[in-house]
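Predict the assembly for these two chains.
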Amino acid sequence: MAAELAYDPNTNIRDIGDDYKYGFKDKEDYVFKSGRGLTPEIVESISKMKKEPQWMLDFRLNALDIFNKKPMPTWGNTKMLEDIDFENIYYYIKPSEKSEKNWEDVPEGIKKTFDRLGIPEAERKFLAGVTAQYESEVVYHSIREDLVKQGVIFLDMDSGLREHEEIVRKHFATVIPAADNKFSALNSAVWSGGSFIWVPEGVKVEIPLQAYFRINAENMGQFERTLIIAEPGSFVHYIEGCTAPIYSTDSLHSAVVELIAKPGAHIRYTTIQNWSRNVYNLVTKRAVAEANAKVEWVDGNLGSKLTMKYPAIYLTGEGATGEVLSVAFSGHDQHQDAGAKIVHAAPNTTSIVTSKSISKDGGRTSYRGLVKVYPGATGVKTSVKCDALLLDEESRSDTYPTMEIDEKDVSVEHEATVSKVGEEQLFYLMSRGLTADEAKAMVVNGFFEPFTKELPLEYAVELNRLIQLEMEGSVG
Amino acid sequence: MATPLLKIEDLHVEVDGKEILKGVNLTLNAGEVHALMGRNGSGKSTLSYVIMGHPNYKVTKGRILFKEQDINELATDERARLGLALAFQYPVAIPGVSVSNFLRATTKATRGGVDVPIKEFRKELTENMDKLGVPKDFLSRYINDGFSGGEKKRLEILQLSMLKPSVMVLDETDSGLDIDALKTVSSGINALATKETAILLITHYQRMLNYVQPDFVHVFQDGRIVASGGPELSTKLEEQGYDWVTQELTIA
């Protein structure tokens, strides 16, 4: 009955408070806060504080060098990118001494924040493990005992490096090298936190693992680094959520996420991003799917000032499958430049890209996608579908699909639509007693339904609620 | 005499600057079923949209009273919550929104914003669905998305039976129905006709009126009602067409 989740009729739009409800901030009380700006000394001190091995320090310094030399991306919203003041950002803030296993031990102020965000409650209800990151560091971490017994590793990335250096060293930055783009280089230089997951062969983690990322300080830069390795025949579903307070000046979130699905493994990675509207969200996400493996990116982008994110899947083994299902919601002064990148490098690989975007109040969404099929990758099937919904005349949506097909024996489908919320749809819904706001929210929720139905119930409900919040007062 | 549920007085309506309704007068009392018959393009559907408050239709003169309240200034949803409803001739699809969620939300909206307890709601819904021969899988389907003509009309009547409005306008609910569907839908409409409700059936065929007996029949032409009478009027229209009305009017 997944279809029943699309709209929560119990929620009265009028009862919901205004705007961004995660916009509160805590008083700063940190163990360490770096100065503004980025220097080799800051990179060294981050590495030193974390007591990292020399190879990681070398990796960071090399990445810093690359970052300084690399030009800004020439795609996406270049105007907004130019406004980023790298000298004004705090690159590392350590909120507490260590990551805790009990919520009770998390420093009071931070614990309150996560309580308000409903994280401990969510963990009790439906999660197998939780990581909570505040600024640069993970402050809370837990995993269910039975998973530990099965050999599943779920740690923050720093602990992962300390406790499983061999596995980390073998895989780290193999999917996304520091030199991939300016922001992956930046992340590689100053990364901190994120998740490290290793699932042993044949183990299926049926209940989702979750990470929650919270930015608190103004002009903060959050650079978490996530690495998930699914050994042959295993399965894991990882969910991440993110929020930040509202400030008048900007913060930067620039993560790197690497997924490795070994033969026959299945990784599902779900993101519900809900940054406040002063956050630059410039994230590099890439997965490798080996023979008969499956990788799914389920990516929900609400909030932020500018998001540039194109989850990628390299299908390197025969029979591998990649799916990217994404939604983006853009309001006033926001630009969601999102998409997908699929590389078919082996025969009989399949990919499905579904992108749905909504723009309102002059907001802008773009779909930017690449499907590449290498010569010799016969029997490839790929389908790309982009639907954009515009809620008013001022809003904008663009599609930039690229297909590089170097093989003849390939089945390619591509479809793009742009539509407007129809006056007749609203009239129909309102003729049944729904207010204009409720009617619009219902059409929007329906539009997102193919995405929502892929989420666990609690997230589906939350997403619908967020959409209703975004829709409030949107009817002029 | 009791207050009429709906009273339309000298209603003139423009769409895109063109006058479509040219002085409509009509009174619906509780317990009455009225049939409004006329050719395509005579303005029947415009009347139904205006009653429901479609924003593109501009009332230039006259008024619509619901239980003596002038509703000209009310938005569509406010009218619906007062107890007005329209069964659409061409219901639109809302992809991604399931019929059951929709019915739950709209039932709440039209019953004073109060949720009907889920058990009660299910029971009521099941009963109504059975009456209309609506299969269970309707509930998880998206509103009118990929529905056949007959399914759309059933859904319209199902909605009315859940929302329980006091004034119902049914715009060509009979079109696109085969004979079996027509019978089922008609019996659904008959169930809606109670002592407390008034129904306005818009149609251009006699066909449906064999199953839903109107108390009054009106002939609509060129934006106004040109003749009114009892059920016999519809029979005459069926036998002789609309030409005699035109002729009588021309002579007059």
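Residues 28 and 152 of chain B are 26 Å apart (CA to CA). DSSP finds eight helices and twelve strands in chain B.
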